[in-house]
Amino acid sequence: MEQSLVVGVDGSEESLRAVDWAADEAALRGLPLRLVYASLWEHYEGAAYVYSSPNASDRALADAILDAAGERAHRRNHGVRTTAAVLPQEPTDALLRESDGAAAVIVGSRGRGSIKGMLLGSVGLGVASWARCPVVVVRGDRSAVDGRHERILLGVGHPDRNSTAVEFAFREAGTRGSALDAVHAWRSPVRRRTAPAAADKAAGDTPEGTAAAELDEALRAARIGHPDVPVRPDTVEGPTHRVLVDRSAAADLLVVGARRNKGLGLQLSRTCHAVLHHAACPVAVVPQRV
Predict the structure, then answer these.
(1) What is the pTM of this model?
(2) Which residues are paired to 35 by β-bridges?
(3) Which tens digits make up the pLDDT trace of 253-268?
């Protein structure tokens, strides 16, 4: 069965920007778009929220929002195939169900119902936390959404916990013809009695040397599988979340991994939370296969 890119749509400007990003991604990867509007309107017989006209029902509003999103996707990329669905569920629950078997779920950084001033809506955070497939939260300026930087930024953690995210980032870079900046942040011990000996430095037995070795190990298999992708590995001293947020301003997509704990679903690290709230470009959260 062919996978789809699932897009959560609610009529907000942020969700329409997510449609733009998803339409470009669908064209690059040759995948169909599934536009999803989720609401519990069916549970309230005769209820109608009034947004644009006094007689607009919830169903009519949902259909109008999906029609507009579909037209926008086709204007963005004429050949993109789209389907649409109105689901009588809470938006987070609906998108999590849709994530089963999806190539990715794409959402805006905030929805129509988000509290003013919030940096990330509850739907985006919930889907990124629990989805079974990669989740892209579309944020940042128009240059990033349109892919003008021609650069993918990958936050690399421990090699054993990041392989799925690394493969995702290499595939994105290869599909787009972009360079891949792979960054592994490291920290010096708070207290160090003596400076590292020259022999230790030569052997790489320093925090920076260990980080460089881990980065090389994490990228090795993907580099073999994607030899045409230009990779710029870098180790940087500092908190991972700050390093990635700072560098996201020059990227079209920031890719981070998230590890699933058995019985507890997908747990988001401090780094994931920070980049989802503060990155200057779209963020892909990729669950590690276990």
Answers:
(1) 0.87
(2) 7, 84
(3) 999 999 766 655 556 8
